[in-house]
Every structure is written in structure tokens, then in C-alpha cells.
Amino acid sequence: MAIKIGISGKRRIKVHEKKIVAQKIKQAINTLLEKHEEPQFIGYTSLAIGADTIFAEVVRDVFKQPLYVILPFDRTEYEKDFEEPDDVNTLHSELNQAQQIDTIAAKIPSNPEERNEAYFAAGKYIVDHCDEMLFVWDELMPEGRGGTAELIGYYCEVKKENNISYIKTSPVKEDPVNARITKEYERANKNALKFRDSYKRVWKRALLLGWLAVLIFALNTAFPSKIEFLHWLAVTLEFLLVISVYILITRAKKRNFHGKYLADRIKAEKYRLLRFFYHANIPVKISTLTMSADKTLAEIVEKINDNIKSDKYKSNWYANYVIKSLIEDQKNYHAGKILSIGTKQNWFERINVGIGLLLLLNLLLHFLADSNVFLFHGCDFYGRNTAIFINLLLPASYAAIEGILFFQDWDVLKKYSESSQKSLSECIHSLPVEIEDPDCCNRQSEAMNLISSIMLTDNKNWTAVFEDKSNYQWVL
Fold first, then answer.
1. pTM value?
2. Which string of DSSP letters, residue by residue, matches 337-380?
3. pLDDT tens digits, 189-232
4. CA–CA gap between residue 277 and residue 300 (Å, rounded)
5. Domains of the chain listed by start with CATH number
6. Cβ count near 163 (within 10 Å)
7. Phi and psi torsions of 287, nearest 5°
8. 157 near 163, Cβ under 8 Å?
9. Residue 190, SS3 per DSSP
10. Tens digit of pLDDT for each residue in 327-361?
11. What does each C-alpha distance from 75 to 47, 59, 385 come to in angstroms?
């Protein structure tokens, strides 16, 4: 049985992106056909200029499948929403080739509100009657009733989908507030990643070079060379390694990689959170202290709140989608962290237990060998030099692994992620069950602020764990 695939997408698509969108629509349809193991389908569209007509061409010309057209109202009236004569001709051509045409509103709209409501009803009809949906979206907020962003929200709600895939297009006209938030987030995130990588390189290299210095010291002490040059070379390498560690640590402290990493990581998370507040049309509350400490953040918050107070269209369907997306993003982030940590902590701790046992075994053998020589005038069956080498190297190896555990703190982070996952799952219950509920906006605001509180608490906990991680000095 043929499956039903619907489309909802932006009207305004840049010329150079139209071929890309067509190709991605083709790929998406092929994926859906493979998923359902069904070669035939029916394409549902309202034939608006842009994504809808691109979809219609792909369905007809590439897949040779029938097209069902869902018009919001009478076709003659519908033509009035097409600005260019070529667009009207495209509409006529597609309608003439459609297998079936249905009209949602029997009455011609008498005002903009009725017109927009008819568009939304047509979009809802496609969502309700299709097995699968394709969305072509520029990731901006709804401009009016029945837009792609709102239909995404409607789809997620009625189909109980929290995560959807969509074909991304660049906006023809950017939202200045959204653009400013994105710019600040990307800047802070880029800096955080840069300082994080620099910070990690320092402590990893410091541990490795420190361990190598001990290895050379242990070899030179336990198995001293009779060749003066080799002895000098070993001492020189040991000296250079220790100096290198010292330089690494001094440079890292001077440039404050660690402190900048923490600051920019938290700043990036705040801007990311602001974007969700903005898209969900929920006012942002920040303390006077935060406003005075970060003027850029305060300025953006003011713009967000001013925008929310304006008469700009607000969609509860879209707001619910935004909030649920944030919850899913955070849950997936913590799930990924838990998965990546896995049992690393346990494995490294087991390695250290093994090192400890080897050290005790070495000491025991050393004791027995020396006792055999001293008490019974026997031979040194173990080798004093070997014992000295192991006694010097194993404690350094143990300390290096403890250093890794110190800087990573996997066990604590895993517990925080598990706790955050549980708290975020409970936030779903704060959202309204019915979008048309009069208390819908209040419940959405309550849920968003609860998520914000969880995320900020998570950031505080994370920061508290890593605040003292700039103490590389003990590596020496």
C-alpha cells in the first residue's frame, strides 16, 4: 500500500539553494521509502511557491508518483497570494497535473485572520493525513499563523515526536535578535573549545613528560652506564623534561587557559539558553548582578523581552516544540556523556590497584632476595637493580593515572549527568497537555524556567568540580 508523504516548507528559498533543496528532498524520500519498504507513495502539498513546488516537481518528475493538492481555499482566491506571473503559471501547471485537489475552506476568507487560519488548517490536514512529513525550514520563528515553524510544532505534538529531521535552508531575511544570540553563542563556544583544548594539552603533556623524566631517572639510577656520555645524556634528558613540564605549567597559568575555558563554556551555555527562551516567547529574568557583570548579555535579554512584548505573532505549538527540543537536546547530551565515560573510572582504578599489587610484589621479592644474600649468603635471585627500577617507576605510574582521574573526574560527572537526565525527564510533565489550554503560556514559562534552573545548576556543579583543576603544580 502506497505511503503518504507530505511537505511543509519555506516559500522564500534563495535561488542557489533550490537545486540543493531538490536533491535533499529526493534523498529524504528515498530514505522514507526504504524505511517503509514500499516503492510507491502519494505526495501531499499545498503548492505554495518554494519548497512545495520543488517537492511537487521531485515527486512527479523523479519518482513518477501521484500528487494530492490541499488548497487552503478556492484556487482563484489562492492565486492572489502569488506575486509573480511565473509563479501563477507554475501553480496552474501543477494543478493541471495533480491527481486530486481538495479545498479546506469552502468560504473565501474575508480578513487576514481567516486567511491565515485557512493556511494553518491546510497544513494540519496534510500532517493529519500523511504517514511521513518533510520540512524545509530556515530555523526562524513563525512569521504568522500556519507557517512551517508552527506546523513543525503541531506535527511534534500530534505525532508525539520530540526530535524531527528537516532540510535546512538559509533565511532570506535574518531575524536580528536571533542572529545576535547565535553570533555571541558561536563566539563563546569557539573560545571555550580553544581554551579547553589548550588546557587539556597542558596537563596531558605535563603528566607524560613528568612520567618520562621518572623513567629516565629510574633507568639511570638502577642501571647506571659505565659510559660517561650515556650517563650525561640521561641526566640532560631528565633535566630538559622537568624544565619542559615547568614551562608548560607556567605558560598555562599565565595565559589562564583553565579559567577562560570555564568562563566561556558557561557563557556559551547562557547564550544557548537565551535562544530557546527567545524562540519559545518566554520572558527572561536575570539578576542585577548578572546584568552589571555582562553588558552584552543584559542587552540581548532586554531585546528578547522587548520583542516578546511586541505584537509579533506567537505560536504555542512552536513554543512547545522549542521547549521539548531543549529537553531532548540536554538529555541526549547527558546520555552521550554517560556513554562516553562508560566504565573508564573503574578501569583506571583497577589499573592502579594492579600497579599497587605489583609494587608490593616487587618489595616482597626484593626483601626475600636481600634476606637470602644477608642471612644465608645465597645469590641475589631477583636482582637489586631491577627492584630499584621498579620501585622508582611504579609509584610514578600510579601518580600519573591518579592525575588522569583528577583532571577528568569521570565518576562525579557521570553522577551529575544521571541526575540531570532524571530532572529533565520530569520537566515534560510541566508542559501543557492541550495547546489551546488558557493556562498554556504560564505552563510553558514554568517548564522553561525549570529547565533553565536545572541547566544552570548543572553548570554550577560542573564548574565547582573543575575550579581547582588548574593546579598542575603537583605533577612536578
1. 0.86
2. HHHHHTTHHHHHHHHHHHHHHHHHHHHHHHHHHHHHHHHH----
3. 999 999 999 999 998 999 999 999 999 999 999 898 888 888 89
4. 11
5. 3-173 (3.40.50.450), 179-475 (no CATH)
6. 10
7. -75, 160
8. no
9. helix
10. 999 999 999 989 988 888 889 999 999 999 998 99
11. 11, 21, 95
